[in-house]
Amino acid sequence: xxxxxxxxxxxxxxxxxxxxxxxxxxxxxxxxxxxxxxxxxxxxxxxxxxxxxxxxxxxxxxxxxxxxxxxxxxxxxxxxxxxxxxxxxxxxxxxxxxxxxxxxxxxxxxxxxxxxxxxxxxxxxxxxxxxxxxxxxxxxxxxxxxxxxxxxxxxxxxxxxxxxxxxxxxxxxxxxxxxxxxxxxxxxxxxxxxxxxxxxxxxxxxxxxxxxxxxxxxxxxxxxxxxxxxxxxxxxxxxxxxxxxxxxxxxxxxxxxxxxxxxxxxxxxxxxxxxxxxxxxxxxxxxxxxxxxxxxxxxxxxxxxxxxxxxxxxxxxxxxxxxxxxxxxxxxxxxxxxxxxxxxxxxxxxxxxxxxxxxxxxxxxxxxxxxxxxxxxxxxxxxxxxxxxxxxxxxxxxxx
Length: 400
Fold this sequence. Notes:
Blueprint: E1 2-5, H1 11-22, H2 32-42, E2 51-56, E3 59-65, E4 68-73, E5 76-88, H3 97-111, E6 116-119, H4 124-128, E7 133-144, E8 156-159, H5 163-176, H6 188-195, H7 199-202, E9 204-210, E10 216-228, E11 231-241, H8 244-254, E12 263-269, E13 285-296, H9 299-305, E14 312-319, E15 328-335, E16 338-344, E17 350-353, H10 354-362, H11 367-370, E18 377-378, H12 382-388
């Protein structure tokens, strides 16, 4: 079995592998060359080189894509490569092809200076073997549309139609994600994809909330949803706000749809409780779920840029079965003069594998709860460990 980067001319063969693995239909191409020409015409910015394939007997049997992003972490923006299009032909499954691709792909991520990786699993335990752990915890509220009409109707709302409107949306989004980990820092190509969804074709609408001074401070992107268990639900595919007033304004605006929709649905990072804002809670549904899995690619760099509370020091031992450079014990000293991270032979205050370290440092799991996890061994220095591993909002709204 050969593991290598895919060639551009193999785009059609890769698509065939994915269509078989995921059981979806595609339009047959006259030739690989014709398919590639059409693909490049429709997506001129596509990165065809961001694929690894497993080849056996001259045939692609498995595929993995590495879409390249930047993402937020503790107030900064850092490299994060996604994982997508993980597909193996049925007759070659359980043969280790994806495992071998991951070994090569993770090494490239590290060598290219990435700090994180993110994916959406078909099964969590499968990707834990490669160092990934549950990432964003999100709460989805579904409530009667009339529930928020009693909130103060401050500010004003306009539908996004112009370039200036979308520049406002970009600014709101960037401010919204600055205190949330793993959120994609969108580039122009990402935003262009968002703008392709139109009211006329997709029944997708973007609304911007402005305060009384005319400053844009919140937005939501809604899409029509079919009837669901007797409810006609208007869903906010994105719901971003930068102030409490803009949050209230968007909620109040959702009430204007009560004549057309029985319910409104939106998603926020887990931990935000809005039940007390609603006039009636008997029919309100709140579901908390994980959305994707994250992985630290470079332990040293992540420890250096992480935010800690106050000052102190601790040691943490990390085991990584796929990126050897991450293995070892790290001494971390933090405070008003900055952060220092060095490898050490000193005993570790905390020991864990890379997936649990990822959950702890991103704030998806806090130190207080870590004691319930047998995969995490704590030997002392609890006060300083709690300053390093505390709850943080993890949020992502881009699927790949």
